[in-house]
Each structure stands twice: as C-alpha cells, then as structure tokens.
Amino acid sequence: TAAATPAREIQEESKCPICLEYLTDPVSTDCGHSFCRGCITQQEGVYDSLCCPSCRAQIRKGALRSNNQLANIVEKLRQLDFSPGNENLCGRHGRALDLFCEEDWEAVCVLCWRSPEHKSHLVLPLDQALPLDQAAQPHKKLQARVATLRERRAKLLGLNEASEQRSQQYLKRTQVERQKIVAEFQQLWQFLEEQERLLLAQLQKLEEELEKHQTERGRKLWEQISRLSERISELEGKCQKPASEFLQDIRSTLSR
C-alpha cells in the first residue's frame, strides 16, 4: 500500500549495507553513508585502503564518526511493526517472503536467498514452489508430525497411567501396614492393661493382708500394754500403803 512504502523505505535505510541487518553502533563517513561499526572496521583488515562500500569514496583513517542520533532512531524502529495487514515479511530482513527453499521447506525473502544459509539451496518463487504432484507433501509431513506427536503422547499417557497404578499399589500397601501396626499396638495395649489390672489386684491383696496383720499385732500389743499399765498402777498403789500392810502380801504381789 502507499502508506506502507515510506515505512518500508525508512526500514531499509536503517539497515547496514554490509550485513543487511539493523545498524548496530552506527558510524558515519565523510561521504554521508552509515554502517555498523563492526562491519566497516572489518573491512580495514581486508583491503589496503578503506573505501566506502556504498560509493567507493576514500575513507580517511580516524574519520569514522559515531552517530548516536541514528542509533536512537534504529532502536525505535526495532520496536515498531512494519508488517502490512496481509503480507508475510521476513522476521530477519523485513522483506516479503516470496521465495521458497525446497531443501529447508520454508519461505524466504530475497536477502535470505543470498545469505550463506540458503545460497547453495534450490529456491523457487513461492507460487511455483509446489507442483500439483507435490502440493500434498507439506500436508503429509504435517500429518506425519502429528502422528509422531500423538504416539509420544500415548507413550507418556501410558507411563503416567503405570505410575499412577504403582502409586495406588504403594498406597494400598501403606494402608495395610498402617492397619497392621494399629492392630498390633491395640493388642499390646490390651495386654498391658490386663497385666496392670492383675498386678494392681495382687498389690491390693498384699496391702490388705499387711494391714490386717498390722491391726492384729497392734491389738495384741495394746492388750499387753493395758495389762502392764494395770499392774504398774496396782504396784504403785501398794507402794503408798503403810509398811505393815505393804509387807503382808509382798511375796504374792511380786510373784505375779
């Protein structure tokens, strides 16, 4: 379209005539042309005298000037989309993809065709690239690719299903082991509770027997203490009597 032509021209003017890419660190010559700094300095090692690749004018040593303003413009252009509504452009060169490389099976622009990647390949106009007997080849290749991907997906699904089955088996095993452990500990707990009740009953019986024995022994001791207390009181009473009365039954008193 008419609106797209100036934009395309601006895009082309922002590219290096040597590498055909957007200018990187652009420098300008006295003759007014601009190049990537890396591209133009590489020319110094190739030729004895440096000439402008665009007009062949002599370039004085040290005459290359950095063009920061152009660098800013190129950076802005990199961020813009110059693609027309229905036209496919080369993402590398911004040219129309009107050629077809039969070796790599991809659409290319004229600059791609001249590049080392495709220079030795068979390249045809896009509208002549696929004769009728070959028109179905891309579709067949795509179908083959889809079949391959489906096969890979089926394998992955099978692996996933097998993994889930193993996980379920491991889960069931852990549940069985958990139930087994719980049952064993319940049995052990019941056994310990029974042993506890038995030992506590035996201890209770022993305590009762000890208490009974202690009570019986205490009763007998208190009986003896009571008799002794009575005897002591009796003797103390006799000691307080007159001597004539005290001596009358002293023999019988001491013999008891």
UniProtKB/TrEMBL annotation:
Alphabetically ordered keywords of this record: Coiled coil, Metal-binding, Zinc, Zinc-finger
GO molecular function: zinc ion binding
The keyword Protein transport is assigned to this record: no
Claim: Metal-binding is one of the keywords in the record: yes
Coiled-coil region list: 189-223
SUPFAM superfamilies in alphabetical order: B-box zinc-binding domain, RING/U-box
Classification via InterPro entries: TRIM/RBCC (IPR050143), Znf_B-box (IPR000315), Znf_RING (IPR001841), Znf_RING/FYVE/PHD (IPR013083), Znf_RING_CS (IPR017907)
Sequence ranges assigned to domain B box-type in this UniProt record: 85-126
Domain RING-type: 16-56
Descriptive protein name: Uncharacterized protein
Organism encoding this protein: Pelodiscus sinensis
